[in-house]
Amino acid sequence: MKKALITGVTGQDGAYLARFLVDKGYEVFGTYRRASTPNFWRLQYLDVLNEITLIPADLADMSSLLEAVSASEPDEVYNLAAQSFVSASFDQPLLTTEIDGTGAVRLLEIIRHLNKDIRFYQASTSELYGEVEESPQNESSRFWPNSPYAAAKLLSYHNVRIYREAYGLFACNGILFNHESPLRGLEFVTRKITNAVARIKVGLQEKLFLGNLEARRDWGFAAEYVEAMWAILQQDKADDFVCATGMTKSVREFCEQAFKIAGLNYEDHVETHQAFIRPADVELLQGDCTKLKETIGWAPKTKFEDLIQLMVEADIQRWEDHQAGKTFPWDAFNYGDELSHLRRTV
Question: Mean pLDDT across the stretch 266-295?
């Protein structure tokens, strides 16, 4: 039986990957950060919490990472843990660099000294491209980070390449473009939209405040993207791959479709607010995953409209179930009221 260690197993990608690997017969270990409030709802949602072994660890703490790798003795390590919210990286640039930039280097050093046969996957990001010169973007396109988050991820990206070339590690970068699901965190714009649609639909909210509605992204389904992560580590030769749909849509188009699914007009409810405008933004991201398709045979299946419908229907069902007094794994009450947040930031 193969063994895998997933850092950040409580996140969207970590939970989907854990479910995928368990179903493939893996023994799965996952790291999580100790917090005052446990954040296992995604693992519970996918009914995988009791099928994996959890290990407390932090990417900023070398000793805890060494313990996690030593205890799990993995064949494969998937480094998905991160400070993954772009806007927060402007508020916490040093923390973001420590976690997203040097965290991967700690894991690579552990693998180099402990067991060079471990295969390593690094969760890279389309945010690396920043201010793009060409579209769509592929593995050869210029990187020009436009946030502390992207700059930190670029540091880890190049170190993965360096450790692969200098030490012969089987280390790969997956340059994943935006991938969403009903398990996406509410701080991300897609889930923020679908959750607000649901609340408006059931009469709990009137307005949705957003930032740049014209930003365009390449949006896919997270449950499919974790399959690509696994496939990348099954190749004979380590390499880096773009994972994307090749289609780009604006935040405005996402809003329009999400509200339409609920029988609502987004123009009646959506307003822009300065509090959600980033100091620097990425206007357009569109991925070219030709290399991934030709090498691995992976291709996205879920269309943009179907993804939004999946998310909107899930959030409406959650709020309806909540109003009916049902209990279930959920994250909505981990977040404060948006209007209160706006009053604090104005």
Answer: 84
Q: How far apart are CA 13 and CA 224, in angstroms?
A: 10
> Which residues have a catalytic role annotated?
125, 127, 149
Residue-wise pLDDT for 74-121, tens only, equals 999 999 999 988 888 999 999 999 999 999 999 999 999 999 999 999
* Structural domain boundaries enclosing 279: 185-218+247-285+302-340
CB 276 within 8 A of CB 341: no
Pair (199, 145) in one structural domain: no
* First-to-last C-alpha distance (Å) of the chain: 54
